[in-house]
Structures are given as C-alpha cells and as structure tokens.
Amino acid sequence: MENMEKYYEHLHLRTYDAKLHTAPIGAESLIFTGGRNEESLDGMWKCMPDVFDTIIRKELYGPVKRDTNGMEIPTDYAFGDGFDIAIPGSVNLADPHFYLYEGSTVYTRAFTYYEEKKGERVFIRFGAANYECRVFINGEYLGRHIGGFTPFAIELTGKLKEKNELLVIVNNRRSFEQVPSENYDWFNYGGLTRSVSLYRVPESFIKDLHVSLVPDGTYGHIKTGIEVDGKIDEAVIRIPALGLEKKISLAGGHGEVILDASPELWSPDNPFLYEVSAEAGDDKVSDKVGFREIRTDGKKILLNGKEIFLKGICCHEESSKGGRSLSDEERMMILRTAKELGCNALRLTHYPHSERMSQLADELGIMLWEEIPVYWLIDFENPETLLNASNQLKELMRRDYNRASVIIWSVGNENPDTDSRLNFMSKLASICKEYDKTRLVSAACLVNIDSMAICDRLCDVVDIISFNQYYGWYFRSYDGLKQILDNSHVDKPLMISETGAGCDYGHHGTAEELFTEEHQARVYEYQIRYSDGRIQGFFPWILYDFRSPIRMNPYQTGCNRKGLVSDDKVHRKKAFYVLQEYYRSRK
Ligand code: GCB
User: Ligand 1: does its nearest atom lie under 6 Å from the Cβ of 545?
Assistant: First the structure.
C-alpha cells in the first residue's frame, strides 16, 4: 500500500517542481568566450512538447525506472524520444501543430567527451533558452535559468563520461511575474533559440575581460579589467597594433590597468577594430575591440566629441524560416538594409538579440541601442521580478561590454508611470551606471496625453529621454507630435524611440486610408516634418513586419505590419523611400 501511494505521488503533488525550483543561474556563471575553441552542440537534437510537465512530475529525466525485482517500469517518456529538431531553433516552427504552443519542451542530445588536457575544466554555454530552462546531464539535475534572451553557463567538470546524455527542459509559458510579463507584441518562440556549446578551460582561467576607451575626453587612455577563476596573480594584456603589452597584478581574482594609447577611433564611418589579447596562467583569450567615446552635453549626443544625430530604425530579431534563430547572412542583411536606408543606428527591440548582431554591428559600423524586456506591465512590486530583470541586464552587459557599437542600454519600454515602476527602473538604471561608465542609459517612455508633454519621472534618471508616440496612427491627428515637442522642456537629448503606421505591402489607396502604403508614407512625412531639428535621434517602428499573435485583422494576419519592408524581408513599402530620402539628406 505504501508503495502504491508513492507510485501515485506525482499525480497528487501540486508542488511537483519544487525540487527543480532552485535559485536561478546568474550573470556570474558566464565565462569569457572570445578567442576560445567552441565545441558546438548545435545540429539535430530530439524534442518533445510536454504540456503537462509529465517529465518533471514523474522525474523521467533520469534513467529508466525499475522495480525491486529489477523489472523495467513502463514509462511515458525516455531519453531520445520525440522528433528531430535543428538547434538553434524553436519548437513552434518544428511542426505546424506547435505554432502557438506555450509550455515545456524537452530537448535531448547525446555527445562524447574525451579529456584533452589533464585538469581541464568544461563548461556548457547556452546562447539563450526561452524562457525557463532546466539542464540535466546523465540524469543529474544541474540548474535552472530564467529569461529567454541572454546566455548562461554551467560547469560540467567531473560530471562527464565518454558517452553523455544531455537533457534540457525549456518552458515558454507566459506568466505575470516574468520579464517580459504576460502581454507583449511579438511572437513567443520557445526553446533553445541560440547555440549550445562546450568550452574547455585550464584549471585556473580567465573568467572575464573588459576593454574600453576611458571616457575622459582625451581619447588617450584604454582601460582593461580582468577577472580570473583560480590561483593566478598576474595577467598580461596585449594590443599589438598599438605596440602595447602590459602586466596586470591580480588581487582576489581581479585586476585593472589604464594604458596610455591613442587608438584610431571607432565610428559608423570608420568601424576600426583592434585585436586585443589577455594571457593569465595557462589561459589565453582575445577579442576584437573598437574604441570610441559616447557622451551627452546638454541636449547634444557626442560621438568622439562630435555632435551626432542618431538616424535609427527599430528591429525585432526574427527570421521567417528560423524564428528567433537567425543565420549570420540574415543578420548581415538586416544591417545592410539599415545602412541602405541611411541609418547609423539600430534599436534592437525589445529584448537582447544574439551577440553575433553586436559583433557584426561593430564590424559594419552601426550604433546599437540594446534593451531588456521590461515591457508594458511588469510585476514592479515583486522583488523576485526585479532580481530577474537585473540579472538579465547584467548578463547582457557582461556579454556585450567590449562592443563599441553598443552605445545605449535601455531599461524598458512603455511602462506605466507608477511609484513602483519608478523604483524598479531607477534601480536598473543605477546598475547600468555602476557597471558601465562607457555608455548611455535610456528607456522608451510614454507621453502624458492629458498634458500633451513628456513628463515621465524616469526622465530624471536616464541620460537620453526617449519617447514612443504614434501620431497619425493610434491618434489620427498629425499635430499631436508638434504639441508634445512644444510643451516639453527638457535639458537632455531627446529621441523618438518609436513611431509609425500599419501597412500591408501592395495595398494601395488614399493617404487617409488605413493599412495602405500611401497612408504609412504620409505618417512618415508628418513625423519627419514636425520632429526634424527638434530631436537628437529618430527610431521609427520598424524595419520589417514581424509575427505577433495579437495582430488579428485581415491586413495583419498574425503580423504587426508597421514594417518598412514586408515580412518576407524583400518588398519595400513607399515609406521606406520617404525615410531613406530624409536620412540621406540629413547631416
Ligand atoms: C509600441 C510598442 C511596440 C509595438 C508598437 C505597435 O509602442 O513599444 O512593441 O509593437 O507600439 O505596433 O503598436
């Protein structure tokens, strides 16, 4: 009888995942990957949606269960069951039945491991897993990560055999306390949306490396910071093209040095990158780093001391084939299309995009606004939610610290101006300031439509005041923008972080008719007319149409159609050329 009760336990236990509800893995788990040999675990995996969480309830992530006589007990799932899926990828695109699926999915892959160097340590790194991810190796639970767009790593040292079974459960079910929360305007691609890789490092190794120009207006100092794990008390940093080689003494695993150097400066016109390397003990890492200074002076934004106007466009991370998993060719196409449009900047909305995007933006010369998904309504009163958002921000900042292209950290988008939100987002802004002195902080704020002015209290804590407004679309009057700019008296740079209009490519009519190319073009003409000369950056919404289940009318058919280019990424709408003409003529 006692045994029977145990057998049914999983059916009667509400807190069935309590054992696996461990403290989330945080930003400190990350290891520096630049210059390291990446052993890719991408490719074909097996996957199976598990909407009732049966694998967790019945603990089916372990070896096959046997009774006291050694007889195999029937099971509903075993390692390797399911269908083929290419990783990185999303369960939602693996089969048409799963298009709108939200829930747990189990992913499995076997791999072999042979020790290469005595004493080596091994880490597994996930580029991103949306949203909650639990990792098991050879039946043993290793940890849990939350947040669907940032990387995390787990040490596997001592847990690997020659043949290994990796099992990962990723759950993309939305809920209020998450970041983002339940309601948002993009597609909820679930699963292992970015690469999974192994890294081998020596017993003592370089955990992190920061390299940046000191923003002191001299363009004559480079700061490097290094963090090690293990017993190393000295590191060497080299930038051969500048003839620099310098020893750094480490204390408590950390060291920092300021080097005198006058590097060629990075800018969109001259995206110059230097090879930087660091050596410590038996370990060596490297990176390609650009040096630039971004700061504000009153209402001006200065890049390398010169005033700039950010000619931007917003962009989601989405491929029609791969969902949130893009190829480098697709990323290059986004960057090249933005350049062709005349842009010098991209707003990567509304969550961290792949690190490949910022690496390529460094190379091609496009400035980036990067953002965490503190979007619309968030559980601002919940301390766990704040920890979660802070961790996503730290993971992003740690990942992209060396990217010259990234000039803005954004701590949120269109959140209600309440006390709890102000407190929550001010904390995020101060985390940015504390961690990173080489970038600006912003957030996309809402305008107050009673006073027709920008009076969001968050303006006091950001470096650039950015606001979203859709005059000509959600509000049909075009004059609203002019009134807002007349009524808003700010002493910091001001940017439009979104504006636009829905338009179904190929649908024509008068400039008053919604969803036509003519109407979208008219909205752009007015937006440009009223804002030119009065703002320091313009980021219309959006480069491409994108999937969004909340957009259900016959023009939208499951897509937000405010793109300047249709969702096939090919067909350019009339408004594309309106913006292109403006950017080409604008200094
Ligand atoms: C916004 C949001 C963005 C939406 C857009 C729209 O203000 O920030 O995520 O997709 O409006 O199309 O309404």
Answer: no
